[in-house]
Amino acid sequence: MPPVLSLAVCLFDNVASTDFQGPVELFGFISPRGLPKRYWPTEPGYIIEASYFSVTMDPVYPMSGPALVPTRTYESLQPDEQFDIILVPGGIGSRPGVTPEPVIQFVKNQAPRAKYVLSVCTGAEILARAGALAGRKATTNKRALARIRGDHPEVGWEPRARWVIDGNTWTSAGVTAGTDMAYAFLEHLVGSEVSSVVRNIIELPVRSQEDDEFAEHYKLL
Amino acid sequence: MPPVLSLAVCLFDNVASTDFQGPVELFGFISPRGLPKRYWPTEPGYIIEASYFSVTMDPVYPMSGPALVPTRTYESLQPDEQFDIILVPGGIGSRPGVTPEPVIQFVKNQAPRAKYVLSVCTGAEILARAGALAGRKATTNKRALARIRGDHPEVGWEPRARWVIDGNTWTSAGVTAGTDMAYAFLEHLVGSEVSSVVRNIIELPVRSQEDDEFAEHYKLL
After folding, report:
1. What number is the average pLDDT over the span A77-103?
2. In this predicted model, what pLDDT tens digit does every residue of B135-173 receive, in sequence order?
3. Residue B170: its H or E element
4. Is B123 exposed, middle or buried (0-12, 13-18, 19+ CB in 10 A)?
5. Could you tell me if A88 and A69 are in contact, meaning their C-beta atoms sit under 8 angstroms apart?
6. Using 50, 70 and 90 to split pLDDT, how confident is the model at A1?
7. Between the CA of residue B177 and those of A202, B181, B210, what are the distances in Å?
8. Which of B176, B208, B209, B216 to mutate to test the interface with A (most CBs of A within 10 A)?
9. Which of A78, A139, A205, A209 is a good FRET partner for A192, with 20 to 30 A between their CA atoms?
10. Cβ neighbours of A33 in B, within 8 Å
11. What is the ipTM of this complex?
12. CA distance B80 to chain A (A)
């Protein structure tokens, strides 16, 4: 079996479910329960295994969509436990003063040694508050970008970008941009021959990082 | 308050969560917990209130993503209860012999008098099995289309389409196409002035029904 990359998805009430569900739908194809070998032109070089963290084991109530069942609490993290990939979604629950403190602490503890740190939409604001974006280029939901830039001038916010890569840190624009970023990330991990099998199953049109019309809509340029 | 349209989302194990989560993320903005009045140029003409049906009240385990908490059982439906909108997602759980019989029965009972019937991906196969597509034009996941066409020659399957509208029935291609269809549906319901507020928040690039590259990939033309 290929090496397993552990993925921690941060859940909290009033998360935008699509922010993480778009990406994990793609990643699920290379998970332990993913596609059988015969689907692949070559075996994927990695397998991704996801854990869903929340403050308690109670259902999480997102902005839209059904309640979600977490698989771990932030508190359950062992002192020496390190996840390979951290995925932080956005939504109303990512706003300052709203996000539960354990989410920020989790990112603060995990991000420095994670192989990859990913955010979707205003999830970037949580990364910024956890100090994970200082001195880095990043993007976020365009409707919120001006406000977040004001609060976090230590981050190089890019207004025109579907997603931004800086080192091991991948941040995307609003909601649906997370799926485009996740596809590029999957391609980065396992190569385009394998990732295109996934893309053709979920019928995802490929977009480029620069293919972004929303910076202009919100007069950010 | 504007008139409320009741939406029934059909859940089952091995559903593709993104199939319904993409659409309900959009619909959530015009839900009772949606955006406050000041966000809208004019008040939306409808409000959508979603119920999530499953065979039991136990968590539903989708193909990818966290387990989901249903809000109703199919069995709980009252004899005179009619939903305005039925949304049927796809995934491995929609395959013949896999879908729980109560899902098929629910669609069979609700579709004839629903204002709108929507499916995403192979959710169309469930609609077909429930007799809701006979004599209608429809589409489905392109990877599965040839097989499903063989099983359901009574349906006018369209190979090149991001989504298809026939009367009150909206069917989309695979996974991500459901979000594009949901946007067009939202626009149809509440007009483009209101729907574009939603689109700009979730940063959804607008696609047309014909903008489909996957029919060609799967040699369906």
Report:
1. 97
2. 999 999 999 999 999 999 999 999 999 999 999 999 999
3. strand B169-172
4. buried
5. no
6. confident
7. 8, 6, 11
8. B176
9. A139
10. 63
11. 0.96
12. 25
Arithmetic mean of pLDDT, A105-128: 98
pLDDT less than 50: residues of chain B: none
pLDDT at B1: 82
Query: Which domains occur in chain A, in start order?
Result: 4-217 (3.40.50.880)
Compute the C-alpha angle B141/B147/B151, nearest 5°: 115
- Contact yes or no for A119/A130 (Cβ under 8 A): no
Residue with tokens 């976090």: A152
Average pLDDT, chain B: 97
| A179/A186 Cα distance (integer angstroms) | 10
| Dist CA B40 CA B46 (whole Å) | 13
Task: Give the integer Cα–Cα distance in Å for A210 and A162.
Answer: 6
Among B181, B167, B185, B190, which residue's Cα sits nearest to residue B212? Answer: B181
Cα distance from B134 to chain A (closest Cα, Å)?
Answer: 25
CA distances from B36 to A17, A19, B46, B138, B199 (A): 20, 22, 14, 36, 16
Residues of B whose CB is below 8 A from A141: 201, 203
Interior angle at CA A39, CA A37 and CA A42, nearest 5 = 65
